[in-house]
UniProtKB/TrEMBL annotation:
It comes from Mythimna separata (Oriental armyworm). The lineage of its organism: Eukaryota, Metazoa, Ecdysozoa, Arthropoda, Hexapoda. Residues 40-199 form the Band domain. This is Band 7 domain-containing protein. The keyword tRNA-binding does not apply. Belongs to the band 7/mec-2 family. The keyword Plastid does not apply.
């Protein structure tokens, strides 16, 4: 172990010495080729970009550069541009088997951005490609743990769960997942027909219940009206006259006026009284 550490320390010191020599030679080259070297040494990145600089394969201290002008040494410095703007990834439709064994096709959209340019370059080969693949698998895993009715009715909750899961996983890649939205859930045709039939049956049942309640209320109103009319003979006569008025308003060629019941009762009582007097 002591020998290995000594060898590593020796190699590090040699690499540092070699690096210093190359840096000095690079500066000499810049000075000798002035002012043409300025076109190579000075670079510009936009407001939404950062530059991650590597010197002899190592990250340059100070983190990412930009926005604006930054300086690199020719031959020994390389840099990578990183776009910090929010990107949109449209997840293609994924065939998912739900918790209650229903196959559905689900697609979503993910909004993410690079929040640490240095980590996104140094820790992962392709941060954007890795984030997109992880979004697909996270969508399938999240949908597979929920029944169909939750997928259809709790999209906001599912989107929030996916956003937290993706953000936690991509933190080590320098990626910030800002938002996840479930776009569409496509059901099999047979299941759509079954759900439509179930909804239609439920609507018919509600319509029958409402109609029955209306009939019940109408029956109660008629009963109350009959009680009022029975208690007042004058009300019966007014109702009779109202009925005649309604019939006369219609365009009928022949109108039959019914004889009032009270009039028949009056004549029957008069006849009974005359018979009793004769006896």
């Amino acid at each position: 172990m002591v020998v290995t550490e000594a060898v590593n320390d020796a190699s590090d010191s040699e690499s540092k010495t070699c690096g210093k020599i190359l840096v000095v030679l690079s500066w000499i080259l810049v000075c000798l080729t002035m002012p043409f070297s300025l076109f190579i040494c000075f670079k510009v990145v936009q407001e939404y970009e950062r530059a991650v600089i590597f010197r002899l394969g190592r990250l340059l201290s100070g983190g990412a550069k930009g926005p604006g002008i930054f300086f690199i040494l020719p031959c020994i410095d390389t840099y990578a541009r990183v776009d910090l703007r929010t990107r949109t990834y449209d997840i293609p439709p994924q065939e998912v088997l739900t918790k209650d064994s229903v196959t559905v096709s689900v697609d979503a959209v993910v909004y993410y951005r690079v929040h640490n340019a240095t980590i996104s370059i140094a820790n992962v080969e392709n941060a954007h490609h890795s984030t997109r693949l992880l979004a697909q698998t996270t969508l399938r895993n999240t949908m597979g743990t929920r029944p169909l009715h939750e997928i259809l009715s709790e999209r906001d909750t599912i989107s929030g769960t996916m956003q937290l899961t993706l953000d936690e996983a991509t933190e080590a890649w320098g990626i910030k997942v800002e938002r996840v939205e479930i776009k569409d859930v496509r059901l099999p045709v047979q299941l759509q027909r079954a759900m439509a039939a179930e909804a239609e049956a439920a609507r018919e049942a509600r319509a029958k219940v409402i109609a029955a309640e209306g009939e019940q209320k109408a029956s109660r109103a008629l009963r109350e009206a009959s009680e009022v009319i029975g208690d007042s003979p004058a009300a019966l006569q007014l109702r009779y006259l109202q009925t005649l008025n309604t019939i006369s308003a219609e365009k009928n060629s022949t109108i039959v006026f019914p004889l009032p019941i009270d009039m028949i009762t009056y004549f029957m009582r008069a006849k009974e009284g005359s018979n009793n007097n004769n006896m």
